[in-house]
Amino acid sequence: MRTINYIVVHCSATREDRPFTVEALRAVHLSRGFSDIGYHYYIRRDGTVVKTRTLALVGAHVKGYNKYSIGICYEGGLDAQGCPKDTRTPEQRAALRLLVHQLLRRFHGEVRVCGHRDLSPDRNGDGVVEPEEWVKVCPCFEVATEL
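^ thats the sequence. predicted structure below, dont judge the formating
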Protein backbone atom coordinates (compact mmCIF):
# COMPACT_ATOMS: atom_id res chain seq x y z
CA MET A 1 0.00 0.00 0.00
CA ARG A 2 1.08 3.56 -0.64
CA THR A 3 2.26 5.89 2.10
CA ILE A 4 -0.51 8.41 2.77
CA ASN A 5 0.33 11.83 4.22
CA TYR A 6 -2.74 13.78 3.06
CA ILE A 7 -6.46 13.32 2.77
CA VAL A 8 -7.57 16.08 0.43
CA VAL A 9 -11.19 17.22 0.21
CA HIS A 10 -12.52 18.67 -3.04
CA CYS A 11 -15.84 19.82 -4.46
CA SER A 12 -16.94 19.02 -8.00
CA ALA A 13 -17.44 22.78 -8.63
CA THR A 14 -20.92 22.12 -9.95
CA ARG A 15 -24.16 23.96 -9.23
CA GLU A 16 -26.31 22.95 -6.28
CA ASP A 17 -29.45 22.95 -8.44
CA ARG A 18 -28.12 20.42 -10.96
CA PRO A 19 -27.10 16.81 -10.44
CA PHE A 20 -23.56 15.78 -11.36
CA THR A 21 -23.41 12.02 -11.73
CA VAL A 22 -20.40 9.76 -11.46
CA GLU A 23 -20.63 9.27 -15.22
CA ALA A 24 -20.53 13.04 -15.78
CA LEU A 25 -17.52 13.34 -13.45
CA ARG A 26 -15.78 10.55 -15.37
CA ALA A 27 -16.48 12.26 -18.70
CA VAL A 28 -14.96 15.52 -17.45
CA HIS A 29 -11.84 13.79 -16.16
CA LEU A 30 -11.41 11.75 -19.35
CA SER A 31 -11.73 14.94 -21.40
CA ARG A 32 -8.88 16.41 -19.33
CA GLY A 33 -6.66 13.48 -20.31
CA PHE A 34 -6.95 11.44 -17.10
CA SER A 35 -7.20 7.64 -17.37
CA ASP A 36 -10.34 7.73 -15.19
CA ILE A 37 -11.77 9.76 -12.30
CA GLY A 38 -8.88 11.34 -10.41
CA TYR A 39 -10.48 11.19 -6.96
CA HIS A 40 -10.60 8.05 -4.85
CA TYR A 41 -14.10 8.78 -3.51
CA TYR A 42 -17.09 10.79 -4.68
CA ILE A 43 -19.88 11.75 -2.27
CA ARG A 44 -23.28 12.32 -3.88
CA ARG A 45 -25.87 14.74 -2.48
CA ASP A 46 -27.80 11.91 -0.83
CA GLY A 47 -24.66 10.89 1.10
CA THR A 48 -23.83 7.89 -1.08
CA VAL A 49 -20.07 7.34 -1.11
CA VAL A 50 -18.82 6.00 -4.43
CA LYS A 51 -15.34 4.49 -4.58
CA THR A 52 -14.05 5.83 -7.89
CA ARG A 53 -10.38 4.81 -7.78
CA THR A 54 -8.66 2.10 -5.81
CA LEU A 55 -6.49 3.44 -2.98
CA ALA A 56 -3.50 1.53 -4.34
CA LEU A 57 -3.51 3.83 -7.39
CA VAL A 58 -2.08 7.33 -7.24
CA GLY A 59 -4.83 9.88 -7.73
CA ALA A 60 -5.05 12.80 -10.13
CA HIS A 61 -6.55 15.54 -7.97
CA VAL A 62 -3.87 17.92 -6.62
CA LYS A 63 -0.66 18.53 -8.53
CA GLY A 64 2.45 17.81 -6.51
CA TYR A 65 0.61 15.85 -3.79
CA ASN A 66 -1.02 12.93 -5.61
CA LYS A 67 1.62 10.33 -4.78
CA TYR A 68 1.01 10.54 -1.03
CA SER A 69 -2.66 11.50 -0.86
CA ILE A 70 -6.23 10.31 -1.05
CA GLY A 71 -8.72 12.51 -2.88
CA ILE A 72 -12.32 12.85 -1.76
CA CYS A 73 -14.77 14.95 -3.78
CA TYR A 74 -18.30 15.97 -2.87
CA GLU A 75 -20.95 16.77 -5.45
CA GLY A 76 -21.58 20.52 -5.59
CA GLY A 77 -19.63 23.55 -4.42
CA LEU A 78 -21.43 26.25 -6.43
CA ASP A 79 -24.70 27.99 -5.71
CA ALA A 80 -27.52 28.18 -8.27
CA GLN A 81 -25.85 31.21 -9.86
CA GLY A 82 -22.49 29.44 -10.21
CA CYS A 83 -20.69 31.16 -7.32
CA PRO A 84 -18.57 29.22 -4.78
CA LYS A 85 -20.61 28.04 -1.78
CA ASP A 86 -20.58 25.22 0.73
CA THR A 87 -23.50 23.29 -0.74
CA ARG A 88 -23.01 20.08 1.24
CA THR A 89 -26.20 18.44 2.38
CA PRO A 90 -26.48 17.03 5.91
CA GLU A 91 -26.06 13.58 4.35
CA GLN A 92 -22.85 14.63 2.61
CA ARG A 93 -21.48 16.16 5.80
CA ALA A 94 -22.12 12.96 7.75
CA ALA A 95 -20.73 10.73 5.01
CA LEU A 96 -17.60 12.87 4.71
CA ARG A 97 -16.96 12.83 8.47
CA LEU A 98 -17.38 9.05 8.61
CA LEU A 99 -15.17 8.43 5.55
CA VAL A 100 -12.37 10.65 6.86
CA HIS A 101 -12.60 8.94 10.27
CA GLN A 102 -12.33 5.50 8.64
CA LEU A 103 -9.36 6.56 6.52
CA LEU A 104 -7.53 8.06 9.50
CA ARG A 105 -7.97 4.79 11.40
CA ARG A 106 -6.59 2.86 8.43
CA PHE A 107 -3.62 5.13 7.72
CA HIS A 108 -1.80 5.70 10.99
CA GLY A 109 0.78 8.40 11.53
CA GLU A 110 0.96 11.98 10.44
CA VAL A 111 -1.93 12.35 8.01
CA ARG A 112 -3.10 15.90 7.30
CA VAL A 113 -6.76 16.37 6.39
CA CYS A 114 -7.12 19.50 4.27
CA GLY A 115 -8.95 21.13 1.42
CA HIS A 116 -7.56 21.42 -2.10
CA ARG A 117 -7.19 25.18 -1.64
CA ASP A 118 -4.99 24.61 1.44
CA LEU A 119 -2.30 23.08 -0.76
CA SER A 120 -1.99 26.20 -2.91
CA PRO A 121 1.50 27.69 -3.05
CA ASP A 122 2.53 30.07 -0.27
CA ARG A 123 3.33 32.90 -2.67
CA ASN A 124 4.50 35.42 -0.09
CA GLY A 125 6.59 32.88 1.84
CA ASP A 126 5.14 33.63 5.28
CA GLY A 127 4.34 29.98 6.00
CA VAL A 128 0.56 30.44 5.71
CA VAL A 129 -1.61 29.98 2.63
CA GLU A 130 -4.03 32.91 2.85
CA PRO A 131 -7.26 33.17 0.83
CA GLU A 132 -5.66 35.60 -1.63
CA GLU A 133 -3.09 32.88 -2.44
CA TRP A 134 -5.64 30.13 -3.17
CA VAL A 135 -5.42 28.74 -6.68
CA LYS A 136 -9.02 27.55 -6.23
CA VAL A 137 -11.62 28.03 -3.48
CA CYS A 138 -12.33 24.29 -3.54
CA PRO A 139 -13.81 22.78 -1.38
CA CYS A 140 -15.70 25.96 -0.32
CA PHE A 141 -15.46 25.32 3.44
CA GLU A 142 -12.76 25.28 6.11
CA VAL A 143 -11.71 21.62 6.27
CA ALA A 144 -9.21 22.03 9.11
CA THR A 145 -11.81 23.32 11.57
CA GLU A 146 -14.58 20.93 10.55
CA LEU A 147 -12.72 17.67 10.08
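The chain has a mean pLDDT of 93.
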